[in-house]
Amino acid sequence: MPHCLTWPIVKKKIMAKEELKIGEVSKPRFEFRSFGQNFDAAAKRMARLSMPIPEKVWERYSDEIYILSRTNDINNTKIRDGKMDIKTYVQTVEGLEQWNPLMKGEFSIAAKVLTEEVFPAFMVEMPALTKNVISYDEFMDMINAHPDLAAVKVHKQRFGYMVNDTLCEYGEVLINGARVVTINSESTEVADILKTVKDVGLEGIENINYLQAIKRVIGMIDKPLAN
Q1: Domains in the chain, CATH or no CATH each
Q2: Residue 2 predicted with pLDDT over 70
Q3: Model pTM?
């Protein structure tokens, strides 16, 4: 990995656009991401082209539960660290998707939040509620009983990089125990992502977001991954 730049210098260099930091919230980013069985060559190039990044994001692990809906492809709904986290699709520009944070809510969660924010994001009919506050276990019972919803366990091992001022990662992902790999580049700058996609050798690879990938793996969508 090249060491001609230090992380403080990198931050100064990208200040004119936006100071992107791995693991922190910025304004809505555009993203290229794909899923498959083998991105070894691209991942190797990504690692070698990467600028130095903080040690805390070299390798990260997380366990999440994605709530998949047969009727929704525009809201990314998941539970991580005891919080309901929803992002919504904004637009596609030059093949890159832009997603915007919609809401975060901790469990136990107010029935009003489920009625006005969570179930509308699922785009399904909501079961009748008899309580004003719903616990995590009660919420999961609602999801598991609903014919159009599925709770999917996702374990992520992610390796972080920065290429062309874009936040990148290569990850090994278990989707209900099924192993796939993912690779991505994201930024507020479309041109920087497109250059990174070309530089690491991902041109022509299908852009697949987490919603689509998980649906394909569990059979909710009859379509293969990128490879």
Answers
A1: 28-77+86-100+150-218 (2.40.320)
A2: no
A3: 0.86
